């Protein structure tokens, strides 16, 4: 399995983010909030990451982004195909790589179901 994160695995357009956040299913736990919607193609799942400024300074927000992208990149084959996901940290949660990995799979399956 290749371990890259090219553009076709990402949600890039603002319109797509808005569509997923407004119409998608929401699932949350103590670490992440995930929004999921069926994509327009039956390809690999795509990921969008949004980190609110209330999460903390830029260093903290960038750390969250790196951990979420790494969790997606290493577990992409375990996510349900044909879905677009937008992920953000739960308010008050601390960045923890292992917790993010567990949470991403669990919430993706719950949001896609």
Describe the protein.
The protein is globular. The protein has 113 residues and is an alpha+beta fold. It has one domain: Ribosomal Protein S5, domain 2. β3, α2 (58-75) and β4 (83-89) form a beta-alpha-beta unit. The chain has helices at residues 14-23, 58-75, 97-112, and strands at residues 25-28, 32-38, 46-49, 83-89. The two termini are 25 Å apart. It is built from 3 helices and 4 strands, in the order αβββαβα. The mean pLDDT is 91. Helices cover 39% and strands 19% of the residues. Strands 1-2-4-3 form a 4-stranded mixed beta sheet, sandwiched between helices.
SSE diagram, text form:
Elements: H1 14-23, E1 25-28, E2 32-38, E3 46-49, H2 58-75, E4 83-89, H3 97-112
Helix pairs in contact: 2-3
List keywords for this structure.
113 residues; alpha+beta; Ribosomal Protein S5, domain 2; globular
């Amino acid at each position: 399995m290749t371990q890259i994160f090219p553009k076709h695995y990402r949600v890039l357009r603002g319109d797509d983010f808005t569509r997923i956040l407004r119409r998608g299913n929401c699932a949350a736990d103590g670490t992440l909030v995930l929004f999921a919607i069926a994509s327009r193609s039956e390809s690999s799942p795509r990921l969008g990451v949004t980190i609110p400024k209330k999460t903390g300074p830029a260093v903290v927000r960038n750390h969250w982004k790196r951990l979420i992208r790494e969790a997606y990149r290493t577990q992409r084959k375990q996510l349900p195909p044909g879905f677009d996901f937008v992920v953000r940290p739960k308010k008050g949660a601390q960045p923890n790589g292992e917790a993010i990995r567990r949470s991403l799979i669990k919430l993706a399956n719950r949001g896609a179901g």
